[in-house]
Design a protein that fits this description.
It contains seven helices and no strands. The protein is an all-alpha fold. Helix 3 runs parallel beside helix 5. The termini are far apart.
């Protein structure tokens, strides 16, 4: 009888030990997955913020708008779950925005129309939400891609010329009616009112 009790206790201790080892290994695996996930988020975020800082340094983005641009990646997980699908979405969205700005910047440098891109990015920043709760799944799947697609400049300098010639004709008429003070374009006024 004591033999059965002794074997039962040893068996229970062995089962408990095996369970503790297995649970400990599971916890280590979960911690490793979290660490890898957080490192990927950190890499995506730091690359994005570094590129935005470069755009600020080259005066493409105003310094006061840099936090709004950085909020795109900074607020991604405010109301969204921490999972691989959302991490992939964050990566796609940040790459899409950076590649769009980069390609437009290259195009504008070749056409010498960087001011137009600066204006487009100013308007883009004005459209971004100010509350962190607004950076939800709908924003990243529908609103942000639409905003990114609006960051476009004319393909060539010739496309700008007919507009500027037309503006010169209307400006001469306006100058006779207005004082020497010039108002910013209406789109700029709307964006300034928002900011």
């Amino acid at each position: 009888m004591t033999y059965i009790v002794f074997v039962s206790i040893v068996l229970l201790i062995t089962i408990l030990g095996v369970y503790m080892v297995i649970e400990n290994n599971r916890q280590k695996a979960r911690d490793a997955e979290k660490k890898i996930f957080n490192e990927r988020v950190k890499d995506i975020t730091s690359l994005y913020k570094r590129k935005i800082a470069e755009y600020v340094d080259c005066k493409l983005i105003r310094p006061k708008h840099a936090p709004k641009f950085n909020a795109i990646v900074g607020n991604f997980f405010v109301v969204q779950a921490h999972n691989e699908e959302n991490l992939a979405r964050l990566e796609r969205v940040s790459e899409h925005l950076l590649s769009q700005v980069g390609s437009e910047l290259n195009k504008c440098r070749s056409n010498d129309t960087v001011d137009l891109l600066t204006e487009q990015l100013f308007l883009f920043a004005a459209e971004l939400p100010s509350a962190g709760i607004a950076y939800n799944k709908n924003f990243y799947t529908e609103i942000l891609p639409a905003l990114i697609s609006r960051i476009q400049t004319p393909d060539s300098y010739e496309a700008i010329q007919p507009e500027s010639e037309h503006e010169v004709g209307t400006e001469s008429e306006d100058v006779s009616n207005d004082s020497s003070e010039q108002a910013p374009p209406p789109s700029r006024q709307a964006a300034d009112a928002i900011n």
